Every structure is written in C-alpha cells, then in structure tokens.
C-alpha cells in the first residue's frame, strides 16, 4: 500500500537503546531522602494543622458578600428538609423520632470544622439508618421487653400473667443505647481509617457495587415501611430472607389494617412524589424548591390534632418530641465521599478522602455521645443544598440552627403526627434510588462484568441482608478482578510498514509480521495465578513448545555425540548444529521445526511480577527461546526479584519494541544469529 505523507509527519533518528546502555548514557536521578528535622518546618506544620482543621483555611477567605446570601437561603431550605428526613429516618433506625432530629443537628457541628466538602448535607442517610435499625432490632427486639398486663378492677389492680404487653420505656432506652453505641463504634472505625490514611480502600466499592447495594437498600427500606403504612402488628425480622418474612406477616394481618394510617400514608406518597416532579421539571423557573415534606407534615399534624385520629381511629402516633459497625462505617463514608467528589468536580475544588474519614468519624463519635445515630449524607438533601445556592459549609451550620429551632420550639406541634405520614415521606424519597435500575441496560451495553457486579450485589443484599450482601458483593467484585487478570488478553504484534508502530495483527489488515521474529504482548500483570496461562498463550502464538524442542534437540545431540565417539560419524559433518535444524538429521529423532530465531515479549502493559512469575520466566529465558522486551518501571522490580544474573543479563531489556527489533535485525545482518537454544543445548555436554 502506498504511504501517504503529510506536512505533520516527522522522523526520529537516534541510537538503539537497551535499558543498560540507556542508564549508562543517561544517569538516573538520585532520590533525596529528607530527615525529619528538614521536613518539620513552620510551613509544614501550618499545612498539617490546616489539613486537620480545614476551617482555618477556608473561613478566613470566606467571601461574605458573594456567598452568605446564598448560604442563608440554602441553609434554611435544607434545614427544613433535614428536620423532616431526620424524623422520618428515625423509623428506619428503630428509635424514637426525636433522635432523628439529634442526628440531623449534632454531626453538622463537627463537620463544619473538620469537613472538606462545601456542598454535602451531613445527617441521616436511609441505608445507614436501616443498617443501624437491623442491629437495634437484633439486640433489642420487642420480645425482650414483655411484661404482664395490669388489669384495674373496681377495688384493686390485678396483674394477669397470661396477658403481656411491651414495656415501651425500657425498650426505647435499650434501643437508643444500642444505636448510640454502634454510632460511636462507627466513628472510631472511621477515625482509625483516616489516621492510617486508608481512605483509598473505599475505592474497592465501585460504582456498580454501590449502585446495586443502594438499590437493594431502597427495597429493604420500602418493605420496612409497608408495615407502618398499613399499621399492622408484625414480628421483627433480620438476616436472610427477612423481607419475605415481613411480607408474610403483613399479608397474614392485612385484615387489621388501620384505614386512617393507610389513607394518610398513600396520600403522602402521592403528593410528595408529584410535587418533587414539579420541582425537577421547573427547577430553572422556581428559585427555591417547594418544601413539600414540610407542608405535608404541617397539614397532617393539624388534621390529626383536629380530628383526634388517635382516639377515633387508633392511628399510631410519634409521641412527644421535646427534649454491624465496620460495614456501616464503610458504606456511610463511601456514599458521602462519592457525593462530595461529584459536587467538588462540578465546582472545581478538591476533597481530601482521608480527612473526610476523620471528619465523619469525629462527627459520629460526637453525635453518638448526644443520642444521635450514624450520620452520612442523603443524596436528595445534598441536591437541595446545592441547587438552592449553597456555597460552603456555612449553609450546613445554618441548616443545623433550623433543626435546633425545631427541637426546642416546634416539638409539641409534631406530637399528633401519624407515623404513616413519615413512612410515606421515606418511601417518596426512595424514587432516586429505585431509578438506578434504569442504569442496568446501559451498564450491560458498556461493560457486562460491571453489570453482573451490580446485579449480584443487589440480589445478595436483598436476599442475605445488607451487611452480608455487601460482603458478598465485594467478594464477587474481587473475584471478577482475579478472573480478568488470571485470563488476560494476549496478542501477537506486527509492524506498521515504515514506522516504529506495532499493533495487534488481528485488529488491522495491513500489518506485517517481521520474518524470523515473533512479538508477543500480555495486557495484564503476571503473577502466580496466570503465569501458566501466559506461557500457554505464548506457546500457541509462537507455534511450538520450547521445552519439547529443547528436549528433542538435546536427545538428538546426545545420539550424534555417541556416533562421533564410536567413529561412525565425523565431527565435521555436524558443524551446522545450532544454525540449521531444518536439514535431515543423521539420527532417527523427530525435532519440531522452529520458524523463528528471536522472540520479543512486550511488557509495557505489565504492571508487576511476583516471585513465582519471575522464577518461571527466568527459567524459560535460560532454557528456551525468549528475549523479553521490558519497558517502563519493571526493571527495578525485576532487579528486586533477582531476575538478572550472569546468564540472564539486563542486555535482554530494551526501551521499546522497536529498539529490540532493530537490535535483533542488526545482530542477524552481522552474522551473530546463532540459535540461542542450540547454544544452551551444547552447554550440557
């Protein structure tokens, strides 16, 4: 094919470099190691303090005139949402609603000082609330707080041991104790992870895994709120197939449905979802989203109070509003930092992942000491804070002030509110999480393995429970990584004519294979799990088994050596050995034909070798026909693995595939093309 040259074409002329020669010509940069005294300067100390207390960095630079108006509007709006979501999400944590308000208040105070995200709204998140609730119901079920019913007669009060009732006060005290203890443990885990700088571990929770997990969590939240909507008595279920047992209990007692609660819950779901759609559709025309949760709560409280639904219909009320830990820590942080990074990228600033661990850890420890449960961030609440003009953490502290006002002043007004209304608010806010299901077909088209991770995590979390399901999803995800590296893609490269470009020969038509040279590339790390697969693919590509060739040639040479000793064959008749094995041999040994004289293995995509792989490759390099072409930072790793010695030297390494090819062609043209395999065979005599 004719070559097309353009004005942007360029030509490069330089020496052929092996890695050893390049290091001799270009001296390596010495790595400076500073002492502790040299590092601990005043500037370094100030940076560390500002890193641990980010408020010292951003607050002095806060542009009051530009940002404060937006932060005030955003803080007030978000604060109203925080109040209602805090009260509603307390149902998921299986504690009294007032503790939801505490959870929407206390964690914000410490995050204001320690956090690095300017936009996330710190507080209860339905997934972590449900995980807390699962532990609470396991350690403090209703069955642990049963007591005999006191029956009041005309003249005396009699205790009937056959009739039992739940001691509500004892149960509530124990449940909040469990929730607060778990919250403190979550905080301790997060602080420890932050101090150890292991925030990167959360990267193992990929987007498909988190998407499948949160969708399953939305399903569990929905199931858990059905019993509140219909207000029927059921047992507490946790663990494997808990959703099925809950649905069975609800169906068995469906005839006891409280009509007032059912109507209130369904109306709440319908109204809240409808208004949220309006907010989304007209978000560019409405300066502030309609706080529909607040409006519904106020109306529902007024209706319940005026109609006295508790005494007339037995509606379940909140009461007075006056005054497994590691996985929860990981999930809470993972969700929060993912949301934080989205808004940080949108507004062009950075979020420190390790500092976020410390910030959320301290916030959870602080909140747990004040009767709060685990804090993270809610996606919908954060979206409200950002869309209403929030510019900094000041919006968060203003939202906390709104929550404090509700705690101190408006608590009695919410006393007659039905729980089914709160359950309706919870369910209505699950729409965004359920809509993640629509991403599955797109994910399938983009990457089938990622799609399988999403589906596997979702199904495991639904069937096995959130904690075990998350672990199962993580194991499945790690398994896909192992499988993909255990069976890496390998290719034979060919040369684009008149260039130094080498491409997969299966991908392009006009690619030339260089005569006598096979170029092999592996697009994966090489380690103990895939070294055998690597060698198998290499044998397939080169067209022969080097070990078998070596043994056959060795056998032939031994027989020839015996014939020479017996005088049946002259030594001059076998001078061609090592140069031409295609000729007819004087002995009856079938030696496989080798059509190449050199092998170049491109390691540019190999990120690491382990001890097993290095040992296996070294043996094959000595005994077989292999000349690896290693590029990049693999040289230091190979040196550390003692890959090189007197026989296998760094001279087999080159800067690029083209350097290796030119070197081989130069050696061949000068006559230094003796078969290296035959040379090793002759050394055995």
Q: Can you walk me through this structure?
A:
Residues 507-617 form the STAS domain. GO terms for molecular function: secondary active sulfate transmembrane transporter activity. The chain crosses the membrane at residues 98-115, 122-140, 176-202, 254-274, 286-306, 326-345, 357-374, 394-414, 421-440, 452-476. InterPro entries: S04_transporter_CS, SLC26A/SulP_dom, SLC26A/SulP_fam, STAS_dom, STAS_dom_sf. Helices cover 57% and strands 6% of the residues. The chain has 685 residues and is an alpha/beta fold. The strands form three sheets. It has a five-stranded mixed beta sheet, with helices on both faces. A two-stranded antiparallel ribbon has the order 1-4. Helix 7 (106-114) packs antiparallel against helix 16, helix 10 packs antiparallel against helix 19 and helix 25 (546-566) crosses helix 29. The longest helix has 29 residues, at 64-92. Mean pLDDT is 77; it is low at 575-579 and 676-685.
Uncertain runs are 575-579, 676-685
Structural class by sheet pairing and helices: alpha/beta
| SS element count, helices | 29
Question: What does the radius of gyration come to?
Answer: 36 Å
Mean pLDDT comes to 77
Strand order of the largest sheet: 6-5-7-8-9
Find the count of extended strands (DSSP E, 2+ residues). Answer: 9
Q: Roughly what percent helix?
A: 55-70%
The span between the termini is: 50 Å
Large-scale geometry: elongated
Q: Describe the sheet with the most strands.
A: 5 strands, mixed
Residue fraction in strands: 5-15%
